[in-house]
Design brief:
By secondary structure, the protein is of the alpha/beta class. The protein contains ten helices and six strands. The protein folds into two domains: 187 residues, HUPs (Rossmann fold); 57 residues, no CATH class. It is globular, with a radius of gyration of 19 Å. The chain binds iron/sulfur cluster.
Length: 280
């Protein structure tokens, strides 16, 4: 059985990266080029993605004639909520993330990833609760590859109605397959156009789970993408550890200042990003 032929109802979690884009393409092919009504594609926007990611999400939708639902976290009357937006009205300055921080009263950190849980997973589920076909349960297809077995085995559903699916893992598709696919698409002028051609600028650009080397490169070349993070820490939303994204690193403002004054540090070897469920 083709692993891309998802059990329905199903949602395809598209993060705006090449991997989940590859997964979406294969799911489309499995369904004969057009998704049935009970298969939705959703992109949860934190407002902190790179402009190239936003352009890519729109382009995928246009090129493949597939509707993509842009969802954002909100707080309404003091309660967690969400909104469906369009590419034209989508947040670009971290507004959903700001709302979450104000609601929670502390910043996420590597041990408490309230951003993934609320901005991504629960925002998706809130939307699906408005879809009658999804009320009794649904498949959530995420772009985890065959070369990411640890992430696959750690993957957990966020609620009892959700059944996680990793069709790329089942199909044994690896990063090499993903890159080869997008190289072919690029021949027709269609690819994710992030700086350096890799995922350094992917997901939330300044994500605290990225390696120091990546964050320094971003601080040096596009410091505007680090400023929101420095501003969030400057809020001092709490005096305790929840006022910083990481206690084991310098604050983002110091990172910006240091890189501006001294340039990037020549790290002897690349530290891996911390494991994150915000897949690409
Ligand atoms: S990419 Fe990083 S900062 Fe953004 S939601 Fe995921 S874990 Fe949080």
């Amino acid at each position: 059985m083709n692993p891309y032929l998802l059990d329905r109802p199903a949602v395809v979690s598209f993060s705006g990266g090449r991997t989940s884009g590859f997964m979406l393409w294969n799911i489309l092919q499995a369904f004969g080029g057009k998704l049935p009504d009970e298969v939705l594609v959703c992109f949860q926007n934190t407002g902190l993605e790179h402009e190239a990611t936003y352009a890519f999400v729109e382009r995928v939708s246009e090129e493949w004639s597939v509707p993509i639902h842009w969802l954002e976290y909100r707080v309404t009357d003091g309660e967690h909520d969400y909104a469906e937006v369009t590419p034209a009205t989508a947040s670009r300055k971290g507004e959903p993330f700001d709302a979450l921080i104000q609601k929670k009263g502390y910043l996420p950190n590597p041990r408490s990833r309230i951003c993934t849980t609320n901005l991504k997973m629960r925002t998706l589920d809130r939307h699906l609760k408005t879809q009658p076909a999804f009320l009794d349960g649904y498949t959530n297809a995420v772009g985890l590859r065959y070369d990411e077995p640890r992430r696959v085995h750690r993957l957990k559903a966020d609620n009892a109605r959700e059944e996680m699916a990793c069709p790329m893992y089942k199909a044994r598709h690896t990063e090499e397959d993903v890159l080869a696919f997008w190289r072919r698409c690029a021949l027709f002028g269609f690819d994710l156009d992030l700086p350096y051609g890799n995922n350094t600028f992917g997901n939330c650009v300044g994500c605290f789970l990225k390696s120091k080397a990546k964050l320094e490169l971003i601080a040096e070349t596009q410091p505007g993408h680090i400023e929101w993070w420095a501003g969030a820490e400057a809020l001092k939303i709490t005096d305790g550890p929840g006022g910083k994204f990481r206690l084991d690193r310098e604050p983002y403002a110091r990172l910006l200042e240091r890189v501006r004054e001294q340039g990037r540090f020549d790290w002897p070897e690349e530290e891996a990003d911390a494991p994150c469920m915000c897949h690409d």
